[in-house]
Amino acid sequence: MSLKKSILLVIIILLIDQISKIYIKTHFTLHESVEVFSWFKIYFIENEGMAWGTRISDIIPNISDRTAKTCLTLFRVVAIFGIGYWLFSATKKRSSKILICAIALIFAGALGNIIDSVFYGVLFDDSLNQIASFLPEEGGYDTLLHGKVVDMLYFPMYKGYLPEWIPKYGGKFFTFFEPVFNIADMAISTGFIMLIVFNKRAFAKRD
């Protein structure tokens, strides 16, 4: 897989991700949802922390949310340069198509979420109890590096109380699949799954 094709894949995923996020941000209020199927909903939330809604302050005590957010965003920016170099190096070495495709997916997904974290606080106003507008005259809902990641894909395939015989969790209300995510998250997850499932083929040595 050539560098041009990998860049094209990144651009396509990035466009789909950002178009979907901008549409949701400018057409939905926060926590508004639309049922597409009984097992799939468009549900607008904003993620201020790490994966699965985890905050840095939950891991590192005595750190403010704003400082944690700044550190997380800067870490993501540094990481994207590392992933970009990995992608460039893999194409130059003519590594396997699976490896290059997986890295491109991870790079596109990471870049998509970084755009939210870095710029959305400046580009949009708040979505709480109102539909956000793009480039509001009074300014955005926060400063540079303090944007929130837009999530909207929700697959509550099962909701109900677990059987009593299940240890520890028996009788508790359970939702599968509970996390709300976006196209960028899907790209990152797909890339990592490809690296795990096709590990031998992805990192096969060329003659």
UniProtKB/TrEMBL annotation:
GO terms assigned for molecular function: aspartic-type endopeptidase activity
Active site: 151, 185
Topology within the bilayer: Multi-pass membrane protein
Pathway: Protein modification; lipoprotein biosynthesis (signal peptide cleavage)
Record GO biological process: proteolysis
Family annotation (InterPro entries): Peptidase_A8 (IPR001872)
Coarse class of the protein's main subcellular location: membrane
Catalytic activity field: Release of signal peptides from bacterial membrane prolipoproteins. Hydrolyzes -Xaa-Yaa-Zaa-|-(S,diacylglyceryl)Cys-, in which Xaa is hydrophobic (preferably Leu), and Yaa (Ala or Ser) and Zaa (Gly or Ala) have small, neutral side chains
Transmembrane segments: 67-88, 100-123, 180-198
Keyword vocabulary terms for this entry: Aspartyl protease, Cell membrane, Hydrolase, Lipoprotein, Membrane, Protease, Transmembrane, Transmembrane helix
Cellular component terms per the entry's GO annotation: plasma membrane
Enzyme class: hydrolase
Alphabetical list of Pfam families matching this protein: Peptidase_A8
The EC number(s) this enzyme carries: 3.4.23.36
Localization per Swiss-Prot or TrEMBL: Cell membrane
PANTHER family per the UniProt record, alphabetical: LIPOPROTEIN SIGNAL PEPTIDASE (PTHR33695)
Family per record: Belongs to the peptidase A8 family.
Function recorded in the entry: This protein specifically catalyzes the removal of signal peptides from prolipoproteins.
HAMAP family assigned: LspA
Protein name listed in UniProt: Lipoprotein signal peptidase
Organism expressing this protein natively: Hyunsoonleella pacifica
Phylogenetic classification of the source organism: Bacteria, Pseudomonadati, Bacteroidota, Flavobacteriia, Flavobacteriales
Gene transcribed to yield this protein: lspA
